Amino acid sequence: MPENEMTWEIRLPLPFGATLPDNPTDAELLQSCKRGEVCAFERLYGLYAARMKSLAFHLLASRGDAEDAVQETFMKVYKAIGAFEENSALSTWIYRILVNSCYDIMRKRQRRAEKPILKEFPIDSKLPLKVALERALLKLNERHRLVFLMFEVEGLKHSEISGVLEVPEGTSRAWLFEAKRALKQMLTEPRHEV
Asked: Which end of the chain is more exposed for a tag (fewer CB within 10 A), N or C?
């Protein structure tokens, strides 16, 4: 590089001695977050935000509300990370906060007497089966829908789901079974044209 050219690199300030390995373990990431290292929170967001937005969208049926729920979750994580006692996995704790944030948004909707929005895009842009599945999911019991989405869509294990929802693993399995049975019934019953 020629002498007269300068390069600029912007870095957020880190506490003295702060370093984060390229691929930190959950424990290293947690400790960095507890020390208030901005790069650790950025990494945490990078690891979880996409899956969290997907889950929140499936629960709330609104991209805007899903983004609000994820943003609220990360604000709560930022404020409470110092008090996290590590009784569960970091991801379990974060998802539990997300689910509670989604429930808060649902309660606000109920107070305003809003109905969940089924779709944000025109129906003709989706496959008929996808539309039918989305409608059927909205008809499921809330707990069954949540377990179905966490297991089938987000790929969480029953041990993780049970930690997030604070229920026994067997309950998670039973709710998934019930969800699949109800979805199968709704998707295979004859449709009556009106």
From this structure: C
Best CA proximity match to 96, nearest among 39, 156, 140: 156
pTM of the predicted model, to two decimals?
Answer: 0.70
CATH of the domain at 166: 1.10.10.10
Contact of 94 with 73, CB cutoff 8 Å: yes
Residue 86 contacts by C-beta under 8 Å, 6 or more apart in sequence? 30
Q: Model confidence over 38-51: pLDDT tens digits?
A: 999 999 999 999 99
Q: Are residues 29 and 108 in the same domain?
A: yes
Structure tokens at 91: 């991801």
What pLDDT, on a 0 to 100 scale, did the predictor assign at position 96? 93
CA distance 83 to 34: 9
Structural domain including 47 reads 24-117
Question: CA 122, CA 76: separation in Å to the nearest integer?
Answer: 34
CA distances from 130 to 71, 105, 174 (A): 27, 25, 24
**Residues present in the chain in total:** 194
